[in-house]
Amino acid sequence: MNAQNETRPPKVTVIGAGTIGLGWITLFLGHGLSVTVNSRREKAPELVREGVALYAPHLPEGTLSPDEFAPLLSFEPDIDRAVANTDVVVENAPERLELKQDLFARIGEAAPPDALLLSSTSTFDPDALGARMRYPSNLVVGHPFNPPHVVPLVEVVAGENTTSEAVDRTMDFYRSVGRAPVLLRKPIVAFAANRLQSALLRESVHLVREGVVTVAELDDIVTHSIGLRWATTGPFRAFHLGGGPGGLRAWLATLGANLDRGWELLGSPSMDEETISMLVAQADEAFGDRSYPDLVRERDNLQSAVLKALAPAAERLPDGPEEVASA
């Protein structure tokens, strides 16, 4: 992470052992990092080991075997001691601003001055998180897309007080554990990926609420169409290709003309008790006969299979125009 630590993997302290925290713990262990877990959960060591056992089979190829995790994993319930000798802190506390501000104020005093202080928050920017810190220069948001041990994206958000060096080190850290960090050019509420997810969810709820499709049918529509497309081609590239040789400009002038009028037809469903009850009842009917661990294994198996299949295909792609011309 810095000059004095280049010869060894960074030591990481993970604060919080919920769903996101467990994913990070598993990923870091798989990459051979020493991980100290700080958690207020009862029986935290037992719960963490169960979570790691559930997640570890879906780590990328080339990572350590779970049999090698034990000497790398430790637990420290006292937060000051947990961060005292670490290189990277990854915070995953509940989304309550005052709680996180108190945490980072304390962490900032107890951690080494050059430690990276990262937050998995999906809500707050670094300036808000570090409002009570004396020196918030190493505080950076690294928002993962769940589950972080499988899905590569990490949205990196800097604050006004964040140094460019801290941002560079953050990007390098996430790349070192196989993630695909994207630096957001400006902080925005809910960041980018969750805003996209929210837009699709809103229309999904509208279609179910209007009786067009059921919850299960809506999921099938997504996974058999745009979900498959988006696994390889983002929205702008997809419509650029949809315009043929004329690209995005041609598509916008023909099939994409009057987009704003189409947007006016999209729903704005009310999340009242009737809607919530309908969604929950249909979800229970569609998924309720499966246990949570079974659903997690199925999700991670399928997502890992997609990533595994894409990796060699991406390596075979031409690197640029010269190779395309000679192919």
3D structure, described in words:
It contains 15 helices and eight strands. By secondary structure, it is α/β, with parallel strands linked by helices. It has two domains: 181 residues, 3-Layer(aba) Sandwich (Rossmann fold); 96 residues, N-(1-d-carboxylethyl)-l-norvaline Dehydrogenase, domain 2, CATH 1.10.1040.10. The protein has an eight-stranded mixed β-sheet, sandwiched between helices. Strand 1, helix 1 and strand 2 form a beta-alpha-beta unit. It starts with 10 loop residues before the first strand and ends with a helix. The C terminus is likely disordered.
Please outline what is shown here.
With 327 residues, this protein is α/β, with parallel strands linked by helices.
The helix tally amounts to 15
Outline, from the CA principal axes? globular
Poorly predicted sequence stretches spanning 5 or more consecutive residues: 320-327
Integer tally of domains: 2
Q: How large is the radius of gyration? A: 22 Å
Q: Structural class of the secondary structure composition?
A: alpha/beta
In spatial order, strands of the major sheet run 3-2-1-4-5-6-7-8
The average pLDDT value, as a whole number, equals 91
Order of helices and strands: EHEHEHEHEHEEHEHHHHHHHHH
In total, how many beta strands?
8
**CATH class descriptor of the largest domain:** Alpha Beta
**CATH architecture field of the largest domain:** 3-Layer(aba) Sandwich
Give the full name of the CATH homologous superfamily of the largest domain: NAD(P)-binding Rossmann-like Domain
In what range is the share of β-strand residues?
5-15%
